[in-house]
Design brief:
Blueprint: E1 26-27, H1 38-48, E2 61-70, E3 73-74, E4 77-78, E5 94-103, E6 118-126, E7 129-136, H2 149-156, H3 167-175, H4 181-187, E8 202-203, E9 208-211, E10 217-226, H5 235-242, H6 248-258, E11 264-273, E12 299-308, H7 313-318, E13 331-333, H8 337-353, E14 421-422, H9 433-441, H10 444-458, H11 463-476, H12 478-490, H13 503-508
Antiparallel strand pairs: 1-14, 2-5, 2-12, 3-4, 5-6, 6-7, 8-10, 9-10, 9-13, 10-11, 11-12
Helix pairs in contact: 2-3, 3-11, 4-9, 10-12, 11-12
């Protein structure tokens, strides 16, 4: 058995040594990525096929149908200034939607009270085809580079030998991934256990783009704000519910819709110009960061109402398939490295899990006619024929009655790149600044719950892992690190933490951080 510090050389399944397991190969260190990322594609493709047939992540879920109603503007400006996407243009225009809520790490029948991010995936059946807005309840994520996604989930899933989840495995990964400190601060606070799905925020997490008719793009982030208000659970409250009902969130959503207490969310968008923003102390494409909502306000663009429960859970909720690459005209990708990796992974997973023709299932099929040259495959039950298309012609171009390319609805958005191909982390990481900001914004009772939850989990970990995590918390905020260290010491694990208690404040003469208050509107 290896001791801490010993290691074997990492290889891929061809036996090639892996010299960089942290970074995608990208044009410049901000992206975009390229298709010759052999190690990443092999790694993520295998990861996508690790579970049959349950989702690898987001296995436990609930869903509902409804509609999205556009406001026709962004703040006080015409929305066409920023995007030509048709679903947003006309005030009062309604677009059908299906939403799937989920927990992330745990299995299909796990309790809905477990500490875990929650998925919030929305399928818009627009006039231009489907748009999938796939995100979580929290506005950030554990990692910023898609290369680390399989490792992250492996660390959070059960031990492959004992099949028991382990906080030591969890924090072993997290303590060596400093950018996760911000997400950990949210996850181990009461924000890590939403009370239900109706009173839960949603976020696209990644940075996307909007494109207008002239082809000009802006960077955007999406946020769902529940009009029922936000409610989270402390660990004790969650345990009380779990003792009596491990389906409480699914039941709550179903019963609210059945009784016509239809839940509603407002979709808000933050935007900034499409450039590197050197004035910021972080990269705006970094999925571990939030954009300041004072400088980049959250502007409402529409409202969603869920008003119909599924008729069949398996056919609709379980077979619903989402992907971050499912965008309509006027919406586009940013160079966010996590988003670019997810975009391959999500649709690849659906082809494996549901089948190569998963888009022919009613829950996944767009409401508009589809005409493709794709044929056959497992479970194909109709042909995507266009009006007037010859059934003999399944290729393009053709002069014999085949399909032809569509007209462009606006000027193409074509970013210019003049950087070298590289495998490097981004420059402006600032792994701890926003984690400290978030800690100081928590109310005192939330900080107490955060500290207690972290100490309870970290007491099961080795001294080295404890030391690394306390160092991260101290970098974020001196009071944060000191209180976690003291709480671990109170559990009788003082050896790993004695020299860390208050050290940053003592060495640097820093005053403990002032409490900044807690926004009732969430984060």
């Amino acid at each position: 058995m290896m001791t801490e510090g010993q290691h074997s050389e990492l290889t891929n399944r061809q036996g090639h040594p892996v010299t960089d397991n942290q970074n995608l190969r990208t044009i410049g260190n901000r992206g975009p990525s390229t298709m010759e990322n052999y190690h990443f594609i092999e790694k993520i493709s295998h990861f996508d096929r690790e579970r049959v047939p349950e989702r690898v992540v987001h296995a436990r879920g609930a869903g509902a149908h409804g509609y999205f109603e556009a406001y026709g503007k962004l703040g006080e400006e015409p929305i066409a200034k920023y995007t030509r996407a048709k679903l947003f243009q006309q005030a009062g225009k309604r677009t059908p939607v299906f939403v799937r809520f989920s927990s992330v790490v745990h299995g299909g029948h796990s309790p809905e009270t477990l500490r875990d991010p929650r998925g919030f995936a929305t399928k818009f059946y627009t006039d231009d085809g489907n748009w999938d807005l796939v995100g979580n309840n929290l506005k950030i994520f554990f990692i910023r580079d898609a290369m680390k996604f399989p490792d992250m989930v492996h660390a959070f899933k059960p031990d492959p030998v004992t099949n028991v989840q382990s906080m030591e495995r969890f924090f072993d990964f997290v303590s060596l991934t400093p950018e996760a400190t911000h997400m950990i601060t949210f996850l181990f606070s009461p924000w890590g256990i939403p009370a239900n799905y109706r009173q839960m925020q949603g976020s696209g997490v990644n940075t996307y783009k909007w494109v207008n008719a002239e082809g000009k793009g802006v960077l955007v982030k999406y946020h769902w704000e529940p009009l029922q208000g936000i409610r989270n659970l402390t660990q004790k409250e969650a345990e009380m519910i779990q003792a009596k009902n491990f389906n409480h969130a699914t039941q709550d959503l179903y019963e609210a819709i059945e009784s016509e207490q239809f839940p509603e969310w407002e979709l808000k968008v933050q935007w900034m110009s499409d450039d590197e923003h050197p004035d910021l102390d972080f990269d705006p494409l970094d999925a571990t960061k939030m954009w300041d909502d004072v400088r980049f306000p959250m502007l409402p663009v529409g409202k969603m109402v869920l008003n119909r429960n599924p008729d069949n859970y398996f056919a609709e909720v379980e077979q619903a398939a989402f992907g971050t690459g499912v965008l309509v005209d006027g919406l586009d990708f940013s160079d966010d490295k996590l988003l670019q990796g997810r975009t391959f992974s999500y649709s690849d997973t659906q082809r494996y899990r549901v089948g190569s023709n998963y888009l022919q299932l009613p829950i996944n099929a767009p409401k508009k006619p589809v005409a493709t040259n794709q044929r056959d495959g497992a479970m194909a039950f109709y042909v995507d024929m266009g009006e007037g298309q010859s059934p003999h012609i399944n290729y393009e171009p053709s002069s014999l009655g085949g399909l032809s390319e569509a007209d462009r609805p606006g000027q193409p958005h074509e970013p210019f790149y003049s950087d070298k191909l590289t495998r490097q982390p981004i420059d402006r990481q600032n792994n701890f600044g926003q984690a400290g900001d978030t800690y100081r914004k928590l109310e005192e009772w939330e900080r107490e719950d955060l500290i207690a939850n972290l100490a309870d989990a970290l007491t099961t970990c080795s001294a080295g892992i404890q030391e690394r995590m306390i160092a991260h918390f101290t970098e974020a905020d001196a009071d944060y690190g000191r209180r976690v260290a003291e709480a671990i010491q109170a559990h009788g694990h003082s050896g790993a933490v004695r020299e860390h208690i208050g050290t940053k404040a003592a060495r640097e003469g820093m005053e403990l951080s002032a409490e900044l208050g807690h926004s009732t509107d969430g984060y």
